[in-house]
Amino acid sequence: xxxxxxxxxxxxxxxxxxxxxxxxxxxxxxxxxxxxxxxxxxxxxxxxxxxxxxxxxxxxxxxxxxxxxxxxxxxxxxxxxxxxxxxxxxxxxxxxxxxxxxxxxxxxxxxxxxxxxxxxxxxxxxxxxxxxxxxxxxxxxxxxxxxxxxxxxxxxxxxxxxxxxxxxxxxxxxxxxxxxxxxxxxxxxxxxxxxxxxxxxxxxxxxxxxxxxxxxxxxxxxxxxxxxxxxxxxxxxxxxxxxxxxxxxxxxxxxxxxxxxxxxxxxxxxxxxxxxxxxxxxxxxxxxxxxxxxxxxxxxxxxxxxxxxxxxxxxxxxxxxxxxxxxxxxxxxxxxxxxxxxxxxxxxxxxxxxxxxxxxxxxxxxxxxxxxxxxxxxxxxxxxxxxxxxxxxxxxxxxxxxxxxxxxxxxxxxxxxxxxxxxxxxxxxxxxxxxxxxxxxxxxxxxxxxxxxxxxxxxxxxxxxxxxxxxxxxxxxxxxxxxxxxxxxxxxxxxxxxxxx
Length: 501
What we know:
Layout: H1 2-33, E1 52-58, H2 65-73, E2 82-88, H3 94-107, E3 111-115, H4 123-132, E4 139-142, H5 153-163, E5 167-176, H6 183-206, E6 217-220, H7 221-226, H8 237-247, E7 251-262, H9 268-295, H10 300-310, H11 314-331, H12 349-361, H13 365-369, H14 372-381, H15 383-394, H16 424-444, H17 449-475
Parallel strand pairs: 1-2, 1-4, 2-3, 5-7
Antiparallel strand pairs: 4-6, 5-6
């Protein structure tokens, strides 16, 4: 039995090292190409600009929907060539807010659509596909409710599609609306910056597959159709379609200098829900696309790095397995004989990636990097949440699209705030398990002590933060706080008040 546990431990450590080696390769490619300049296409006169549809998928977004619609109305683009398409699956007062706003825009000369579906089939993917049936435009921009595009967004992204007929997707970089709200948002900011500045840039400049991040981008309609259209068989429809498009021969372009700021989840429960959906959807894409990727005509490097990206949520599961395996192997005194120390050098890659991203974006980059300890604890402490989502996806379970609540204000007094997760008790149990493992390591292999204490502290921090949020919600006294009311059933279907303008 011990030999089997030892084999599993070694395999997990090697798989984790292999994934981290891929991250080190991304860092190296970023550093080699960091000064590469992207040619800027010529700006076309307004008369030569094509018509563009801007899709805004909404599902109970009362706090942020109007802000986004106003930002779209402020885009520097001819009104007669801009269609604002609100894909509204909401069941609360978002419906009325959006309808009134679109009526006002229609009266001001904008072309608008308020599209309501009888059923929320296919979640966001279904809404995007349904919206395409109501427009004939060749270019489709997409923004989630919690993002605010700059006025020049279309002027800076669309020319690339117009100049290169093989280009199917243009993706911007995510910025941040509330990076300093609390230590949770500061940690997420560090992670998001690293993904876009280092990972996306390295993939783009190396000619590897560049995933679409679901918002802040623009698509060529023919690319969507050629790739098979939006599909709801995974929870990350953006990743799925963008990879299918690139396997079909279309190119994807990342523009690091075009920033679209969005809201970072300020509540840990909301962040957990977001990460669980991403972990599940990413792993579903791994099951769905790994075979076609490896059988495609892509280059070997493209295939390897694409699969490496699809495996990005496996490391938390591998780390959790390593923790669970440590006490029995310590008791059997076999860990000291495993030659795995060189793999530890690869652990330097993620911190260096964080540093590179902050150096690229901010003059006071050390200030942003100070969130690394919080990010380390957060990522480690949430390994249980991510692992359960990954396991569910590996077992072939579809799952529901759980929307990440958006607040745009103090979340503790908001009706969209989430309640305490039942995973709290398992996280506390893992904290105790890590402490027991640390006690064993102190006696037989003290070099493992820091690693195990980080686990114990991480699970304690996540559980403590969750309890703190519950207390904050209960102490928040706001007589106006109410659960969002559902609209009358007659409002399902196409809203007649704001059709084509």
